Amino acid sequence: MAEQEGQEKTEAPTERKRQKSRDEGQVAFSRELPSAALLAGCTLILLFTSPLIFDSAMRMMNGSFSEMVLSEELTIPLLYKVFSDALSTFLPSLIPLALTLFSLAILASILQVGMRFTIKALAPKFNKISPLTGIKRLFSTQSLADFLKSLGKMVIIGFIGVYLYMDKLNEINGLSVSTPQEIMIFNFTALAEISGMIVLALVAIAIFDFVYQKWHHEQQLKMTKQEVKEENKQTEGDPQLKQRIRQIQREMSNARMMQEVPKADALIVNPTHFSVALQYDREVMEAPTVIAKGADYLALRMRNVARENDVPILERPALARDLYSSVDIGESIPERFYKAIAEILAYVYRLKSA
User: Distance between CA atoms of 11 and 120, rounded to whole angstroms?
Assistant: First the structure.
């Protein structure tokens, strides 16, 4: 039972797993957001550029019909010319619409996932063609969400269509006696109203879908406790190995320090806990320097090495404690110790000269 609970994905994903997911193209992405953005952009651009598009369409039809009526014979070269003139007249009016839709499609994707390009998401994955995997996807929460979104869009579009039809039923009946221009204006107005209402509905669906996709992606990225442990080992190293490395480093450092003790001019000790080795060379040092220090067992070893190499050992409990806590190995002693250390070195020099 404990093992089963340990395999549950209850842990938040690590930054390393998030980055790996992004590198593989697996990101929270709502397909509804670009669709809503494209429809909204298309509706707005058509509202602003409709006079230009309408004028281009009128000039295209006038020019095409005029050329065919005035020509004596309908030939293939004439049809090519009519078609070419029509395109050159009408297509420029669609450039603002095309550029807007292209920009919105890219912008909607960038806002969701940022500037990221990868081809890993396009690589074929054979597990996706497995029938069992396909059945699992068919009854997954993602499939249910996609079904509800599609159903919601169908209901909304159907409701909007029925509502506008009932609202404009009288106007539709009166189109039989309207001029072609009035019919076009009515159609354009109705299309703008339908598009506007659909856009608002799709934006609401897109926001909901984006929130859901973020939540669903976060659930997929969750990790088991064992996965978190394994990843920590990979990123930070095995704790036991790191502990062993630190132990070896300490041993090497202590060995180097023991080699410095014989070079000391004096070893200042607290009889039971601390030992501090001092060296002073007037030619290269501005002040006496701590070349080694240790506590407890290491302090005892330093005293033994000092005795073996005839290094004077002086018991100064308070001074030893203060030096041990205040001065690092390789540092010169602070000025407040000058007087006490000068008296000790003077005493040591007298012993050596005696």
Answer: 26
Residues ≥6 apart with Cβ < 8 Å to 135 = none
Those residues whose C-beta lies under 8 Å from the C-beta of residue 243, and which sit 6 or more positions away, are none
Identify any residues that bridge with 292 across adjacent strands, giving them in sequence order: 277
Straight-line distance from the first to the last Cα atom of the chain, in angstroms, rounded to the nearest whole number: 80
Beta strands in 175-273 (DSSP E): 266-269
Please report, in tens digits, the pLDDT of each residue of the chain (354 residues total). Answer: 344 444 677 777 767 777 777 666 667 677 777 777 787 887 777 777 777 777 787 788 777 777 776 666 667 777 788 788 888 888 888 888 788 878 877 887 777 666 555 555 555 555 555 555 556 566 666 677 777 877 877 888 788 778 877 877 777 777 777 777 777 777 777 777 777 788 888 888 888 888 888 887 788 777 777 777 777 666 665 566 667 767 776 777 667 778 888 888 888 888 778 888 888 888 888 888 888 888 888 888 888 888 888 888 888 888 888 888 888 888 888 888 888 888 888 888 888 776
Strand pairing partners for 289? 279, 332
Q: Which of 306, 297, 238, 218 is nearest to 268 (CA)?
A: 306
Q: Which helix (H) or strand (E) holds 135?
A: helix 131-138
DSSP states of 35-101: HHHHHHHHHHHHHHHHHHHHHHHHHHHHHHHHHHHH-SS--HHHHHHHHHHHHHHHGGGGHHHHHHH
105: exposed, middle or buried (Cβ count in 10 Å: 0-12, 13-18, 19+): middle
CA angle 51, 53, 56 (to 5 degrees): 105
pTM here?
A: 0.46
Q: How large is the angle between the packed helices 95-113 and 32-70, nearest 10 degrees? A: 170
Question: 164, exposed or middle or buried, with CB in 10 Å at 0-12, 13-18, 19+?
Answer: middle
